[in-house]
Amino acid sequence: NLNDIPEILFSSPGVLVIDKPEDNQYPMPINVYGKDEVFVGRIRRDFSRDKALNIWVVADNLRKGAATNTIQIAEYLIRKNLI
Fold first, then answer.
1. How many structural domains are present in the chain?
2. Could you say which DSSP state residue 25 is in?
3. Per residue of the chain (83 residues), what is the pLDDT tens digit?
4. For the chain, which terminal residue's Cβ has fewer other Cβ atoms within 10 angstroms, N or C?
């Protein structure tokens, strides 16, 4: 159900949902600079395919994709006693 998607994403660690199309509010790259979270918005049904949706995802790729991700992987390995 499309209405469940924002709540599912909101409950995911490190994900913030900004999705208020009636107020023209959704994630913008300039607003996520320097932040670790991944921002999701503009959640809507994809009318070109059954059981598909479109979402707008924005993150500080250097920070989340490299620096924070490295720390999260190391923490996971430590938790699992792999290092």
1. 1
2. B
3. 778 888 888 888 889 999 998 999 999 999 999 998 999 999 999 999 888 899 999 999 888 777 878 888 889 999 999 97
4. N
